[in-house]
Here is the input.
Amino acid sequence: MKSVKINIKKLGAIRDSELYIKPLMIFSGESGLGKSYAAFLVHYFYVILLTQRLKLYFSERKYNFSKILEKRKNGDLLLEVQVKDLISWINKDAIAYVGYLIGNEKLDGEVVFGIPYPNDTIRFEYAEEIVGLDNNEEVYQKVKTDDFVYRIMAGTYDATATPFVELIKAELMATIFKSYNKLRRTYLMPPSRGALMELAERPAFRSGMYHEFFDFKAALARPLSKPPVLSDELTDALFDVNDGSLKQVDGKMMYYTKAGAEMPLTAAASSIKEMAPFTLFLSKFSASDSSVLLEEPEAHLHPHRQVKVADLLACAVKEGCHLQITTHSDYLIKRLNNLIKLHLLKHRLNDSQEYKDLLQKWQIKESYVIDPSEMVAYLLERDEDGTSKIRRQDIDIDGEIPFESFYKVIEEDIELSRDIKNLC
Here is the structure.
């Protein structure tokens, strides 16, 4: 994956910070400093690549696609998009999108996306292709860039931005991931999602993040022509997190305990409900071609279960999933740290029997071990003026996600306990 950098000059409380996008991204820090805003910004990057959001770029510029495609000949230039103009639009649209997610249309901000596209323009040319048996041929119209072709059967197409959007997405995906179909979908799982799993109808939300969540619920309900086959490792990780399994049966979400009992999801513990969206997502779709923003996966979970969630996140990333995680959990981060250290230990011991015995002793699967080059951790810190900065935590040097934000709270609590004890 090529490096994609986001400079944040201003976004909510955040000032003068930068993000680098990686498959696994962890955001921690005190409440109110902008963890969710930063994660939303990264989610927007995937929205641009994987949804039809770019249609807004063309609609705002009022392109007449009927005229663009009218009476064209092979080799004609249909359109030329200036990459600088496109990225400038993305920078502004990112603020509008984050504002939509949080229900604040007047959100003020300034960000700059560093998308490593090598050319100054994206050129779209027209071509025709005749296919079929003699005397029964069909004509296909083609919209082409340097590397990709979008085919349309002649006479079946209403002139819209779709071919141009799909080709831009393919160009950007191929540049960043070396494959235009590396990822296919992105979803957002907001706070308090567990309670929303019980609602059959979409309420009138003020914030767009919950509208997106209900779009995800609708996707869960749609049948797939070819459901993915879950790996044994992912199946086991899901079972451990839920202490059982979740399934959709006749339109209802059912929970099956390890002991064999069954009940509707509405009757399950809040920890099961809160993890249900991510569980059902991994059961329904392929982790290998998906991106998910998961807010506070530790919510309502006992520390033992939080450790299992870290294993599940690591397993999903190992299978190709891109994850953006916000968290307040030291248990989650401690476990992620141990999974990072196991990766480093594996190479230090040359994958020896001693390393394998350690995994077996602690019942940790190889698929849970995290390559630190695949992840990045960010800590949001408060400045004296009440704003915040995002600090990249140096996993490479420490071999773990640094813990200072949690240590400070622990040390203060120990000092308070000492003072109380001295006066008793």
Summary: The mean pLDDT is 91. Residues 59 and 161 are 8 Å apart (CA to CA).
